[in-house]
Each structure stands twice: as C-alpha cells, then as structure tokens.
Amino acid sequence: MLKVVIVAILALATTLVSAYDPSPLQDFCVAINNTDSAVFVNGKFCKDPAMVTANDFFFPGLNIPGNTLQVNSDQVKLGSSVNLVNVDNLPGLNTLGISLARLDFAPYGLNPPHIHPRGTELLVVMEGTLLVGFVTSNPNKLFTKVLNKGDVFVFPIGLIHFQFNIGQTNAVAFAGLSSQNPGLITIANAVFGSNPPINPDVLAKAFQLDKNVVDYLQKQF
Amino acid sequence: MLKVVIVAILALATTLVSAYDPSPLQDFCVAINNTDSAVFVNGKFCKDPAMVTANDFFFPGLNIPGNTLQVNSDQVKLGSSVNLVNVDNLPGLNTLGISLARLDFAPYGLNPPHIHPRGTELLVVMEGTLLVGFVTSNPNKLFTKVLNKGDVFVFPIGLIHFQFNIGQTNAVAFAGLSSQNPGLITIANAVFGSNPPINPDVLAKAFQLDKNVVDYLQKQF
Amino acid sequence: MLKVVIVAILALATTLVSAYDPSPLQDFCVAINNTDSAVFVNGKFCKDPAMVTANDFFFPGLNIPGNTLQVNSDQVKLGSSVNLVNVDNLPGLNTLGISLARLDFAPYGLNPPHIHPRGTELLVVMEGTLLVGFVTSNPNKLFTKVLNKGDVFVFPIGLIHFQFNIGQTNAVAFAGLSSQNPGLITIANAVFGSNPPINPDVLAKAFQLDKNVVDYLQKQF
Amino acid sequence: MLKVVIVAILALATTLVSAYDPSPLQDFCVAINNTDSAVFVNGKFCKDPAMVTANDFFFPGLNIPGNTLQVNSDQVKLGSSVNLVNVDNLPGLNTLGISLARLDFAPYGLNPPHIHPRGTELLVVMEGTLLVGFVTSNPNKLFTKVLNKGDVFVFPIGLIHFQFNIGQTNAVAFAGLSSQNPGLITIANAVFGSNPPINPDVLAKAFQLDKNVVDYLQKQF
Amino acid sequence: MLKVVIVAILALATTLVSAYDPSPLQDFCVAINNTDSAVFVNGKFCKDPAMVTANDFFFPGLNIPGNTLQVNSDQVKLGSSVNLVNVDNLPGLNTLGISLARLDFAPYGLNPPHIHPRGTELLVVMEGTLLVGFVTSNPNKLFTKVLNKGDVFVFPIGLIHFQFNIGQTNAVAFAGLSSQNPGLITIANAVFGSNPPINPDVLAKAFQLDKNVVDYLQKQF
Amino acid sequence: MLKVVIVAILALATTLVSAYDPSPLQDFCVAINNTDSAVFVNGKFCKDPAMVTANDFFFPGLNIPGNTLQVNSDQVKLGSSVNLVNVDNLPGLNTLGISLARLDFAPYGLNPPHIHPRGTELLVVMEGTLLVGFVTSNPNKLFTKVLNKGDVFVFPIGLIHFQFNIGQTNAVAFAGLSSQNPGLITIANAVFGSNPPINPDVLAKAFQLDKNVVDYLQKQF
What we know:
Six copies of one chain form a homohexamer.
Chain A: H1 2-10, E1 39-40, E2 46-47, E3 58-59, E4 80-85, E5 99-105, E6 110-115, E7 121-127, E8 130-135, E9 142-147, E10 152-155, E11 160-165, E12 171-177, E13 185-186, H2 187-192, H3 200-207, H4 211-220
Antiparallel strand pairs in A: 4-5, 5-12, 6-11, 6-13, 7-10, 7-12, 8-9, 8-11
Helix pairs in contact in A: 3-4
C-alpha cells in the first residue's frame, strides 16, 4: 500500500508533458523531469526555486554536427538531423516561451514538410544552400526562397514548411522557435505512419491514391 | 490624386485578414468587411459601435443542407460539405474567439485529414454514423471513434483530424471551433496542390513516392 | 495517519475547479475528475498522457431532449433545460477553450437573463422560434432578435443575455461557448437567491423595491 | 469632397472603444481620444510616440470628493459616487491593463450590485465602514465582510458585487482594477432599465414578479 | 520513510513562487501558502474552494504608515517604505492579476529607480509632493512630473521608474499594479548588491567607473 | 491642404512602434514600415496579404561580423556589437513572437547589464568563451556560467543580464528572443544617460554615490 503512495507522489513531476505560451508568473519556474508520473498540469511542474542553479539554464554540445546518415524510426533516410533544445532537455526554459534547434543537412538532405503547432520558426543559415518554403492555409499559397550563408527566414506558426539542401556540400542552420515546446508534426509520418494506422479508405479518398499505394505507404512509415 | 487618397482610406477596412485569440477590449468590436484594402491589423478593423445593430450578430440559413455533390476547387469529389460561420460572414464574432460549422456528408462522404491552426473543434453528430479521428504530434498516435446521433467528440487545436461517413445514409454534424478565424489546412491540398507547386524532389523524398506519382498527384490537386 | 496521507494525494485531482483560457502547452491535457480534493491549480490537474484513450474525448447523449418540466433548485419552473458539455463531463476539453450545450424549451419556456463570465456563446436554432437578446455594459443597450430554424446569433462574453420560446411548440438550440468552463451567473438567483442572502437593505435600494417584496423574492429563489 | 476625406481620416482615432488585456507590444501606446470616428480596432488607436509627453500619463483631482447627492440617469438616488480613471480619461493607460477609482459614500450610500466583465477590483477603505460582498457563479455563494479604515478586499473578475456604507459618516475608498477598461454592468439598470426595454414577460418569469411590478420597475430605471 | 512521504505532499503548496497573467479558469483560486515545498507550478497551488472564506479575500492594516526610518537590507537609509499587498499576503488575489501598495516617504525620502518586470504601476498621491519619472527602453527618454495630492501617474510595465519626496513634509501614495505578483528589481541593488557579486570588470566597464569605486559600491549594497 | 491629408494617411504605417505577444489572428500579418506616422496601434499595421512575397519573410547578412570597434552613442567603447533581426527589419515577424540576434565580441568585449522587458533570450556560443549571468528580482541572486563553443544558456524575460568575452580571441554568439520586439534597456545608459537626465539627487541617493561622481557619470553616458 505504501508503495502505491510513493509512486503517486513521484507522479507529480513528469517527462512527457511540457509547457508553452502562458506568461511566466515568477522570475523562472524550472521544469522537473521525473520519469514516474500520474498527475500532470498544463505545462510542467517546477523545481523548488531555492534549489535552482545556473546549470538548470545551461545545455552544452550544440557545436557537434548531427548525424545526417541516420535512418529515422520509419526507416526513411532523409539526410537531415535536428537537435532541438527545448524544455525537455533544458528545464530552465519552462514558462519562458522559446527554444532553439541545430539543423544539419547532408547534400540533398531534406527536413520534410512538417508543422510546429505551437511555434513560429526563425532560421539562420550557417553553411550551405537551402531551398525553403511554407504553404499558407486554404487557399494554399507557397512562399519559397533559396537561402545562403547568413540568410534568415521565418516560418509562421501552424503552417506546413520544409528545408531542402540543394547544394553539393553539407548545410548547417540554427533556428529559434517561439515556444519552449513547439511540437512537431511530420506530415507524411502523421498521415501514413500513425499508430494505429488511419483507415486506408480515408487516405485513398483524401490523397486520390489507389488503395495499393496507400497500403505500400503505410508500410513504409 | 484625390482618388488615390480615397482608395487608401477605404483600405482601412478589409476582407481577407481576420481576428482570433487576444481578449476583447470592449463589449464587442464588429468587423468591417470592405473589399478595398491596403492597410490591415492583427485581426480586423471594427465598425463604429454606435452604428451596430442586432443584425451584426446574426446569420441565417444553417438549417439548409450543404451540397455534398460538389466538386471542390481541386476537382476532387469527396462527398462532404462544410458551412462555416466565422468572422468573415458573421462580423459580430470579431474578437470573441468562437465560430460554428455545419457539416453534411453523403454516404461514404469524407471531410479529409486537415488542421485548424488556430482552433479546437468540438463536434456533435445530428444524424448518421461517422468514423472520426485525430493524430498527435510526433510520435503519431491515432485516437479514433465511431460516432452516432447525439455523440460529441473533441479534436484538439493544431492536430490532423478527419470525419468519414461510414453509414449508408447522409450524415449531419455541427461543430463549435475555439476561434473566430480558426483557419483550415487540408493536408493533401496543401502538400500536393499548393500554388506554385512544392519542388517535386521534396515531395518524392518526403512521401517515399516515385516522382511520376508525385507528378500525377500534383496534377490532381 | 497513513489514511490522511492517501487522502491528501488523491486531492491532487479535483471536481470543482476547472480550466479555461491560457493556451494548451501540449497536444492535450485531459482533466482528472477526482472527488477528494485539497490541492488545486488554476484549471485542472491532468491524466498521464500515456493512459489517455479516445473515450476521454467523447461524450454521448446530446440527442436526448432535456426535461423542460423540471423545477429548478429555487422552485421556479421556467420551462427550459440546458445540457452543458464542458470540462467537468468531457475531460478531454481541458485547456482547449471550448464547450457545447443543448438547450430545450417548452412552449413559452425561458432561459432567464444570465452571464457567462468566461465565455462568448454562439447559438444555432434547430427547431422552433426564440426571442433572444443581450444588454451591453453601461449605458445599457438591448440587442434583440427573433430567431427561427437555422438562425445563428452570438452573445458576447460577460454580457447579460436570455432566450425565450415565443412559439407554441417546443424549441431546440445548440450553442458553442468559447471556454471549457464558461461559468454561469443566473441574475435573479445570484441577486435574490444567494447563500447566505444579500442584506435586504442593499437589494431594496438597488432595485427600488419595497423590503416586503425583497423579502418575498428572497424566499422564492 | 475633401471634407469627407478629412472626416474619414480623423475617424481613425476614437472615443468610445477602449483597450484592455492583450500585452503591450511597445513601451507604451497612448490612446488618441478623437470624437469623430468611423473605423475602430480591438482597443484604441494610439498617438505618435514622438509626440507623447509626461502629461499623457497624468490625471489630476482624485483628492476631490465625489458628489454623493447626485441622482443618476435612472433617477435613483443611491448616495454614492465613483470617479474612474481609465483609458478614456488617462490615455497613457492604453494597453497597460490597469485602472483606478475613487469611491465616495454618503451615510447609507450604496454602490449597487454590479459586474466588471473585464476586471478584478482590489479595494482599500480610506474612511468609514463598508459592508461589501460578492456572489459566485451558480451555485450562488455570498462572500461578505465589514471593512474599516485600512482594510483591503478583492472582488474577482466577472462576479456580482456591492459596497454599502453601514456607518453614520461618509466613507471613502480607492480601488485598483485589472484592466484599462474594466467595463461596468449595474445589474438593476441593465435588467430593468435597458434601451429598449427587455420583453416584460421575460422579466416577470425570470424574477417571479407580477407584470405590474415589472412595469413599475421598468419605469423607475 | 513515511515522514519523507508527508514532506513531499506538503510541498505541493508553496510560499516562494507566485502567480500573474494567465486568465483565471474559475471564479477564484485562492493561493495556499505553505512553507514546506518541493513541487511548484507556474503561479501557485490553490485551496479547496469549498474551504474558502471571506477572510481569504481580506487584508487589514493599510491605514498604518510605513516606517520610513528603516534601514534596508543593504544598510542604505532611503527614507521610504513600501507595503505591498500581493498574492503572498492576500491569497485571494491568486490568478486575478492585480495588487496594491501603500508608499510612505519621509521628507526627501526616495523610492529608488526600480522595475516591476510583470506589472504596470498606477499611483495616486494622498499627501505631499512627489517628483516621479520613468525612462523608456533605448533610446532612453525620461518622462517626469511633479505630483501633488490627488494626482495620478502611470509607470508602464518593465520600465525603470522612481518616486522622490521633494517636499518638506511626509508624503503618502497608493498604487495599483497590474499583476498579483508584479516583481521588483531595485536597480542599484541588483547591479551592485547581487549575491554572489557580479564580476567587477563587468561593472567597471559598463558603468565607466574605476574598479575601486565598483569595489566600494559592492560593499555598500 | 491636400498634402496634409496625404501625410495623415501614410501615417497609418509606422516605423517606431512594433508588435509582440498577442497571438496572430491570421496566417501572417507582415508589418508596414512607413516613416511618416500619426496614428498607431498596439503593435504594427500590416501589409495587404495579397501583396506579400517571400522577401517579406527574408533578411540577409547575418554571416557578417559586427563592428566591435564601434563607439556607441554614449561614447563608450565596449568591444561588442549586436545585430538584431526583429520586426523593424524583418517585417514578416510581425505578430509571430520571435526575433534573432548575432552578437560579436572583441577580446574582453562586453554586452553590458541590460533587460529585455518583453522577451526571454536563448543564446548559443559559436566561437570563443563568454562569462554570462543574470540577476533575479529582489532578493538579487546572480546565476552565472562560463560558456564555450556549442554551449546554450537562457536569460529569463525581464531580468538584468550580461555577456562578457573573457577569452583572448573574438567571440560570436547567436540568440533567439521570445518576441518580435523584445525591447532593450541598457541599465547604465538608462540610469545615467537618459534624456533629459534623472535628477542627480535621486541617483546620488539611490547609488550611494557622491554627487560629483553622478555628475561625471551623467556626462559620460
């Protein structure tokens, strides 16, 4: 019985749920990342402020290139890598409404069409040449641009966007995002790779695809 | 010269830009829908409150079934129809954070996978049987349910969702959305039907499709 | 002693306090509805997201007419019934800023003057004929309209409004509200039926009523 | 013709619509109070910041007692006076989310039951003895207290509240409100004194009053 | 072991962290001020609403002059005193976005340059003569004014401001602030008196001061 | 006369006032940067969305090192340079809540103690070694850290912070800020270099400095 009690208490801190937009109500509210969890809040529980140290606001290693040879969980090799510093790995970001990412691209590497449901992305190219774009809500207008070293581009919150290395060399970019937990919806994976899969009739009709193609795609993702 | 001046002034009211989340700062702020426009704000300009009448808060005709035989702008027949009452056609909704839709479905009609970037949808079925679902951000978990008459289901803001009539009769639903301008991104159209089209290399790589298939799809949407 | 501990832990989830406006900080944050409670937050504590199922986003039965013959808690028969689907009975609504209601009216049934302090109401008439209206803040202007089947009307947040069945048949309406917990202040009940009662000198002076009438009214509500 | 143009331009600044909750997007945004107006925004248009002076942030005369002998617009003598400093008379308050009021009470003077739809009120008594209270949303619980010099009490946003001088001397209080335009709904006036009047059948049924009494009250307010 | 459990539970309520801007999600959410704490939220945990009484919204004693002879924690006698009523001593203010302060000044007393990072201040002079001012963000423009009895002045959120008694008598003022926890950064103390001290090379270079002067100042504060 | 009219109209777009926190109410709202201005809003007026192009979301040149030899406007050579990309030079950022900066430091260069009143800063070091820190609101605790290449550190909104190159080589950093117009208050300049100057009695008393030193400092800044 007592064991149950302890588990329930540890549950007050959590890993999976994270925080975003509402204003901070104190100087800071450093997230607690416990792995046992049963009770959550909108955002994250916080650490006792008297226990907070400078390390809670610190994250190292963003100078290290990401592995663009990785095969992602859906067995698709895209030739890109995103290292996101958000409230999950930099707990001091909690309640503060910002995160940061390093993006690496092999030649012809792609960060495929995706949405951040809770954040605008502001990207600066450090090395290489990227074709980038975003599509507005209906009607669907594409805004696209080729970016070189030092170029900055903004992808508005909630819109589908992508970055594609059209150069023959590696490319590197950094991006700020307007949330400590911007979220990520990779369109192809969400549509064809959800768990459980979406009813194939829905996808065949929506994408004007033969059901065999839908079946093939659902196996890929 | 004077003509130019007048046009610029009319431009203060606008049709295309609409309003959503920030709190109202007065009892109401009825949107002005002018078609000449050159200057905009975050949301909409408003009507002189002394000129406002009850009709500014009124919209008729939601008892009329939508045309589910329609062929949408991308020449795709889905067998569904959505009649959305938002700030564009009910100007009194401006600054008030809510809208309403009537959804009609022919047998096997589909409201295809889409996102409302600025609104949660709360749906109630009036007639028929719908298979509905939404997919979370990565990792992509599908939550799905069969709904009958009187059933209510919620689709959280910013997530991909769909409604599919799996019955042999027409289906009707009403939905409230948590914004006066929730926005709509129909996934298939935004990805394969944007104007101009997304670079086909991007889509072929992202969706694991042969470029011929991408080319075919881009012609459909 | 141990018993006390357990009760305190259960208190983390609660029934009475509910959530509304601040943005969601994750895809969803399904409310936990525990009845034992001692610790609360602004809004509601949430369920472990790994335990969430489609049923957490589901509520059945809104096809069933409300009982318009009911006598409310203040022994007043108004001939109306409101069935509200909010975060208290549809926990998936937590943090998502919307709720839904079914309103039934007997002939001459009244939903009396009331305020939703945290929500705008957007109503559509399904059957019957309603006289509706809202009153602005000082100076008090009435906006009023007769609504028939398919008509939509918006009642701005925080303003006094009412719906009155002026037809000889039953009337039915559905309404979206811009909060998962819009709140409800029925004016007559709040003023004349509070517990404990408001000092009758205050009410007699405010409403220009004889103290005997105030006394009578305080007994009614 | 030119005259029309000029009027339209002046219309960009307005008196009647005011601003409240959304965060300021610059150090300040001093409201412009023009009397000609045809175009409005959520909140107020602002003055050129280069033209702003210290006087835009200044308002004199809150040391002067209000006239508690006044007969208000509804011909009701309540023995109280409220002098509100909000964005309408202190334009520097625009976008800053706060206002201030001086309240004067003759012996037995009453600030009758009312609601601020957009603001919490925090009151401090300077002189005299006040009976104060507020009523929660349904179910309607009254929280009440007798306040003396130096006592502070908070009335939460959107709830019905009142202040009543139960002493035999004048009373004075100051109050901060959490909006530059908190709004004011005096319950009795809004219900019985709206323009045009609410259908008397609605009021008779809602307040359990004889229609003759409703008729009498509608003439009073 | 059981003891550990109990401490962890008490930790759910806390003294040090407080709440501000996001909208209230219920009528009220009275803060709990426990001194044992290990788990926090953005803002404060709340009391069971069924246990709330009128005293939770009440704070006495603001008629008592502050001690302007006090020597503050940095051993500096400034001749002023601020008595702030915020969510820490008036728990009913939690989630409601407002606080109140009484300011007392001895002749030539100073409330030194400071910032409220989470609140605008709206001040009214009750007695005496104050020189007040605030400085905008870069470029740094000073807005300044001499205030007498009954004068009101607003200091926008996040800007450096001060109040200085330039009269030969005591001065008294009241101020509303647009947050239940506006925060306070006294510039001189934060810069020269932080714990641990800021690197003196930083301060010498930033303030164009000799390192001996910086060393002297860091000993003062 | 006509000329006056035209100027007033152009005034609808503005350079000096910028936008930040409230949510976007449409996909984007690209700021208009006109230099003539007489009417403003909270934030910025926007461009006709039909006229928007990809270049509105684009800013080049952040690969170019800033000039760390510059003498700033107060004739102080600090050995640092900040190139901020915000809504003033990247109009597509309007309403989107994020900005980006490149920071260059000569050896021993200093970005002196300052505050962003409307934004948290998230910094990543690209080259060199920086001593960084921030000070909490009262009581004033310093959080400090030495950062090397690839290290990330967060400076919470509204708190005093600094970055100091303690290496013998140049240093470069990039920073995201959680507002399209975060604002900047350089403490030493705002206190000692405002225009007009703050009353020297105030500064002498606040900083415990001899009036001659205050006089000297006010001439420096």
